[in-house]
Design brief:
- The complex is a heterodimer.
- Helix content of chain A is 21%, strand content 20%.
- By secondary structure, chain A is an alpha+beta fold.
- Chain A has a single domain, classed as Beta-grasp domain (Ubiquitin-like (UB roll), Roll).
- In chain A, strands 2-1-5-3-4 form a five-stranded mixed sheet, covered by helices on one side.
- The relative contact order of chain A is 0.24.
- Chain B is an all-beta fold.
- Chain B has a domain of 258 residues: Methylamine Dehydrogenase, Chain H (7 Propeller).
- A four-stranded antiparallel sheet of chain B has the order 3-2-1-30, with no helix packed on it.
- In chain B, a hairpin with a 7-residue loop joins strand 12 and strand 13.
- The termini of chain B are close together.
- Classes of the chains: A alpha+beta, B mainly beta.
- Chains A and B meet through helix 1 of A and strand 6 of B.
Chain lengths: 104, 371
């Protein structure tokens, strides 16, 4: 897969929807291969206020209490440059950014 | 008519409380940023409508919010707090070296004369500055890079730089305080620093009179007399008459000299306020009585201020950044509690009324005096 024109659907946790001032799913155009890194790059380019809230701004490392789910799979520990499932790349399934369950 | 705007940071959001100069009727707005910890928010002395807020939580990290309309609306600005150069290590609780790791912004101190310049005190202890309204932050690495840095240890609340005081008479002079390293002073705008802890004694460290290692909880200065500083240390209330070169204890007749905040009357440089707390293991007022203590003699002689404050079954704490004064003719004094009350005294502490009773735990209180 070298290029992609489909719309990627991203679901943000409530706090980040508020921060980005969006409601419901976010729809993104992701140039090139649809990887976690590419989706997050596109997300942060569209919504700069999200920089640093999902992954470290310098290292790109996922924040400890953030999880990435898609197609009922936990992708949190996948390499960021591995292509996402075709259903996500085709816009059939959303890419979920989730705040890990924890008290407080 | 003149008025005040009280800026309240809590465990679950920010609140803005407004009143006219009588300070008996209050408009309460908030929560702003509901669900987030707001360690501190503060207005620019040069532009009353420019506010900065430190917003954070464990999931999504640190954000800085800026308002240009007195808190009616907010914009997320820059949040990249990267230490300059090699981060290095400080001492961990067990005495082993621990890498410096950014956790959060504890305190924001806007410049006295430029609304776009603001300083941030962070955990792990470091000082940052933005000159573009919070969009970009650069560390002033001379403080963290002080030769004593590798020996600094966190206090129970983390290794935080929680106090920043800009000297209005000497533009390059800045005071900071770090738990648990102590007080530091720069005379060159934050480029170089030296500890200013002579006279402090802390029984919880191997050398009670060490140059660094003291758990300073708060510093306060009256702007008309910037060489006089007051300090609430972990234990002991201290005073310096020479800009921190030396300190002497002024705890005097306080029921306990443990506590967190300390502040100075807006018009009386010798009138000082503290909130005695039972001990470092009992973070609540002695005897269940919430009492602010006021000294009109620059320390040593203290009087309890109780009118309007609960005098039984009160077990809240008042945190280090949760007291402030306004500069109206009759100086107003304000403080917030971990029980969610914000108390106001429009008569310099003689009497108190709760503005709000049931906020989340209050982390910080600041006041703007409006024309």
């Amino acid at each position: 897969m070298t290029g992609h024109a489909d719309v990627i659907r991203v679901v943000l946790p409530a706090h980040l929807r508020t921060l980005a001032r969006v409601q419901g799913e976010v729809e993104l155009q992701v140039p090139g291969r649809v990887t976690q890194c590419a989706v997050l790059d596109a997300l942060e380019a569209r919504y700069p206020m999200l920089r640093g809230t999902i992954r470290d701004q310098r290292t790109g490392k996922r924040r400890a209490f953030i999880r990435f789910f898609a197609c009922e799979e936990d992708l949190s520990h996948e390499q960021p440059d591995v292509p996402l499932p075709e259903a996500v790349a085709a816009g059939a399934e959303p890419y979920l950014i989730v705040g890990a369950m924890a008290g407080g | 008519m003149s008025g005040v705007r009280v800026l309240v940071g809590t465990r679950k959001g920010a609140f803005v409380l407004r009143s006219d100069g009588k300070r008996d009727q209050w408009d309460v707005s908030g929560p702003h940023f509901p669900g987030w910890e707001i360690y501190h928010l503060k207005g620019s002395p040069a532009d009353q409508d420019r506010l900065y807020a430190s917003q954070s939580n464990g999931w999504f990290g640190q954000l800085i919010q800026r308002s240009d309309d007195g808190g009616a609306s907010w914009e997320a600005v820059g949040n990249d707090f990267s230490y300059q150069g090699e981060a290095g290590t400080h001492q961990w609780y067990d005495g082993t070296p621990h890498p410096w790791e950014f956790a959060r912004v504890w305190h924001l101190e806007p410049s006295l004369d430029d609304p776009d310049t603001v300083y941030a005190g962070v955990e792990d202890a470091g000082l940052f500055r933005s000159a573009d309204g919070g969009k970009h932050w650069e560390e002033l690495p001379g403080l963290r890079g002080h030769e004593s840095g590798p020996s600094w240890q966190p206090g129970a609340g983390g290794m935080c730089l929680h106090t920043i005081i800009l000297d209005p008479s000497s533009p390059g002079r800045i005071f900071t305080a770090i738990s648990a390293a102590g007080a530091f002073r720069s005379d060159d705008g934050g480029q170089t620093w030296r500890p200013v802890n002579q006279g402090l004694r802390s029984e919880g460290i191997p050398d009670p009179a060490a140059e660094v290692g003291h758990c300073v909880h708060r510093l306060a200065m009256h702007p008309s007399r910037p060489s006089v500083l007051y300090m609430q240390k972990h234990w002991d209330v201290m005073r310096s008459d020479d800009a921190g070169e030396s300190w002497h204890e002024v705890s005097g007749d306080l029921p306990t000299d443990f506590g967190f905040p300390i502040d100075v009357h807006a018009h009386e440089p010798e009138t000082v306020y503290v909130v005695p707390i039972t001990s470092d293991s009992h973070h609540f007022p002695p005897e269940g009585k919430l009492r602010v203590y006021r000294s009109r003699t620059g320390g040593d002689e203290w009087e309890p201020l109780t009118k309007g404050l609960p005098q039984e079954h009160c077990y809240v704490n008042v945190l280090r950044d949760a007291m402030a004064v306004d500069s109206l003719d009759s100086c107003g004094v304000y403080f917030g509690t971990t029980g969610g009350q914000v108390y106001a005294s429009p008569d310099a502490g003689d009497s108190w009324v709760p503005i709000v009773r049931d906020l989340p735990a209050v982390l910080s209180v600041e006041v703007q005096t409006l024309p």
